[in-house]
Amino acid sequence: MISVNLKSLPIVEDMIKNKDELNIEVITLENGAKVLDCGVNVMGSFEAGKAFTKVCLGGLAYVGIALNGTLNDELTLPLIKVITSHPAISTLGSQKAGWVVKVNKYFAMGSGPARALAKMPKNTYEEIDYEDNADVAILCLESSKLPDEDVAEYVAEKCGVNTENVYLLVAPTASLVGSIQISGRVVENGTYKMLEALHFDVKKVKYAAGIAPIAPIVGDDLVMMGATNDMVLYGGKTYYYIESEEGDDIEDLCKKLPSCTSSDYGKPFLEVFKNANYDFYKIDKGMFAPAVVTINDIKTGKLLSYGKPNIEVLKKSLNYKSL
Questions:
Q1: Which helix H or strand E contains 279, and what residues bound it?
Q2: Angle between helix 4-17 and 46-56 (nearest 10)
């Protein structure tokens, strides 16, 4: 079976080799683990954002950035494009932010290949029937602080690898790399909702592609958490190629999948988060989805689409002003 950690390792090694070009910093901890700072004490770059996103996806996706992303006559933002022929493994088996990393006073949301070794969370890997047995663990951390030796040892223990084989990539939400990698979850938002909210067998999704605007840096981590999520919820477009089986209602799936079906739809995500007392688990799972979903049922040949971008909410989220 494909190893998301081994597929990602050459990308990480290339980032280390080209750290100056990418505007990132590489720190070797005393226990041998390597930390790639992609935005905490450095600026990062578009290319670093692409590489970070590829690693999040377990090396199983094409990631590109277009710098002419016109959403309408007024709002123009760069766009990230994601294409994968392994949707379940790359998004849910790797990219999903399914590991809450808490060690002493350190906190981060963990995603990427190392999750498959630690099986965080276990039920996801049972649902997609995937496991990884690599001797290298690569974890992507969304945090404004760099991890220390204790964090690396915790990850090594959970993943069953030697500490010197741990690679920790870090980017704050309020950074260019952080913004890019969150918009790069556009496909994963759809597969997540399929599995978690609609209970659809995501192994039937054979190919997937998505595109979403990349949020400018408009505030601190909290403000950016709202803006980055809005890029997908109100601007993201996804394409899923599904091999249906008898009894599957793909038309119903397509209608239920976009974010517009959520009771919280129409508000900037930061407002929704505040109303939920800053508790993600109190937010409707249906909210975490792309704005537009197109499905090709490759068994029947049907092509279905539902949803549309909401430019007004995006402009409100970004506090946009046309001069």
A1: none
A2: 160
Q: Which residues contact 27 (CB under 8 A, 6 or more apart)?
A: 34, 35, 36, 37, 146
* pTM as predicted: 0.97
Task: Characterize the bridge pairing of strands 79-84 and 205-213.
Answer: antiparallel
**DSSP characters over 117-157:** HHTSSHHHHHHHT-----S-EEEEEE-SS---HHHHHHHHH
Structural Rg of the chain based on CA atoms:
19
| DSSP H or E run through 65 | strand 62-66
Q: What is the pLDDT of residues 291-311, one digit of tens each?
A: 999 999 999 999 999 999 999
Pairing status of strand 34-37 against strand 62-66: unpaired
Burial of 147 (0-12, 13-18, 19+ CB in 10 A): buried
- Edge-to-edge strand order for the sheet containing 62-66? 62-66, 79-84, 205-213, 237-242, 292-297, 302-307
